[in-house]
């Protein structure tokens, strides 16, 4: 199940459509998984992670823009139905926009929909977050804005006034004075004031939205804005009078573009790419002029910028960035936010609004805020924005939606809208858009947003002291200054001088929230009383009490099995397209399993995902857009937030948003480059606290946004800037040394776009050039030009996104455009092979790479356990045709041995027993079937002695024979391990037979354990391409006259088709099995038998490895 479907647990989908034959509907059906793979994403969605998208096909012939219902049907039968409710706007080219609600029994969620000739767009609110819909032609995409790969850059510096731009004050004395408010009581009907808007768009926007799609997209932004005005009860409508392409660039900063757009309002202006704009504005009677371009967080610096109202028509302009830029998303409300500035509305007091008066946003921290709110990236309040201006005359969150004289954006807008509407005389005769207010229930808890104190959190509804902590979990629900009492002494933690109650006052307590300790001598976040090495920052535990810290100890639990391999390596890969880290076998390139999934954690591995194997800490460091994570890899990857996002509640945190690269040195220091701040910051790699020095940890160290940072073996630190410039940085004080301009380093006539930089073992810097699909090498100290080592497209290389040198000295390259890991001879630049062996669709848009030692002891802190055997099939390659199916139920290992009797007929045995350590043994049972019930008897014993997760010695004893042979996991697909729904499955209403199903990447196979006509146990095999919904395979039976236990096994077994097998999966815990097996002595017929898992799957449904026994 994708992340989107997991989030769409909406009761609203269960309801159907209202039967209204006279109302036109736009119907869409989600495509099956196999069909989705062949659908190309439109340009507007190319940078999005695949897992954040669901793909749909138009279900009906009705393509009319007059449709008043949008139906989006999911594969599992649920349905999104948006219905026109609040009026509409129709454009000259036939696009129609309307505000509406989602169908549902008790809850209503807002929808704003625009349907054009070639495309449609919708903005949907739901209890689980925000979603965008885009359709083009007969294909549609549902986009989950709650996906962790998206971050909104924010509106911290998104307005200017003339004093800021040119050093003089306002030229209209009354522009922001407290005048008598206009009426703001509008509920429905057409607005009495109309502001006409001219949109200009660039070639980049036209490429993203070809043909009439660009106009439809702009119409949708207008619709979202008009719905927001109606919700705010502001008597104003925005009317689109033009949407025209201009030749302005897509590469400069939004602030520069804003100044150029203002200059272009003069009819005599000659601004490059904006010639004639003044004449067009006059001809169309446009009060506001907007330039819209595709979002690019590195270039724009914001989602939008506008001039603050000063009653000057040349300042009736703003810049809007649209859509997605990899890991950053600009919301559809950006346009209305910037128009708000054009009308005098400002952010909350303290957010760049030092003289805002009454016209500011309303903020209810941790609960909700209004349209003009502004928060830095990483601040969770940024995701709690209602589509309304602050207005104390209406309600939101169970209180007035503003404060008279303080937070009243609606009044400020109402005061100034007539002046803006008079910037140009109206020319258009088109009717004004007609939208009415909608009171949502955004979180779907049964209480509308107007009365719900937590409109974005279905868990809570009340907060009587308005401190942002819900009454049921507030230790002081009547005190806005307190909400917690850690030591339970009745004194709130803010006032309590010793909040953990350990007798040491907070200011002297190194661990003020930990009552067990107050001293942390080595500052490693572990109190001295719990720290086995209180004066050694690198160590805190000694599990086996051998005097060697667990980090330095190769065998931390003293069980005789080293924690990590001395020779075998894993290759870890950021798969940005589905937001995870994958693990490959470092010698063969075979996909092993998913190491980390970012979907359900506050991390995401996008364009700037980076990896470092932190050998001194025996852990993996990962750079996510939110911060820096540390992963302990055994028994499964467990996350620790080393550095929290900038401005988040967590500590320690980064200096700014969107980290772009990191490097570690031998002194336990971590250097992080931050794109938004154009800086380089230094942190302690053990505890995460900042280590500022000189220019380090200060913003704007560089002239441009940063792309990456690397440390060469000689200790020199190099930062890569966006244009390819390389800057040497002093690691001790941040002073800048050698600076090599990108134009001289990468001196070629065609485009260069460096996506990753690493330091090679040869002391050189190596670069992945995604624009040129090539690899560069530079000895930076020489100041010479870089040379091309891997030529453009060599070996099928497409848009490289990550580099690493392997233990074999070869260069490994993440070919993002072809979803492959390629291995090259680093000296000759020649392709050795396509290293990655993985099923299609598993690795999407690979980027960062890191080699790490393979794990030997899966339980390095538990001397009683060492291995987690691969679940599924095991075999002996020297004796094919028989083997083991290994399953697990908690701490019990269940092993089914499928083999042959002395006459070569297939038979099977079962053993189950608790498992710990590395040796498992159990009683071997044989089964019989009497037509309705299975009986069993003990016929022998078996033992598995594991030397690793992937190797075991199998010993067995039967009445007439015994023996031993080596076993290893069976590999039939492009994966060396197995994934859900791998498990033993059985029918609860007819126990005694069942299947062992295993999935390895794109291949699924089932061992069917059943009975012949005489009731003797027999088995068959069915295998083919895995499908998450239905699999139909031939059923084969194998005969092994020389493969019985104790037989010499000199001949390969024979097989024949004896029937068919079908497995219909219904999620991860239900299925239906149909079997038709007919052969001499065999007649087993079952139709759609209900099956459930008897054992645990090795992964969850998303592919994340599952822990056992709490590990």
Automatic annotation (TrEMBL):
Signal peptide as annotated in the record: 1-25
Pfam families linked to this entry: Reprolysin_4 (PF13583)
GO molecular function: calcium ion binding; metallopeptidase activity
Skewed-composition ranges (Basic and acidic residues): 460-469, 522-546
Compositionally skewed regions (Polar residues) per UniProt: 1068-1077
Keywords: Signal
Region (Disordered): 437-560, 1068-1111
Keyword Cytoplasm in annotation: no
Keyword flag Signal: yes
Comp. bias regions, Acidic residues: 437-454, 511-521
Protein's name in the database: Uncharacterized protein
Protein's organism: Pseudomarimonas arenosa
Organism phylogeny: Bacteria, Pseudomonadati, Pseudomonadota, Gammaproteobacteria, Lysobacterales
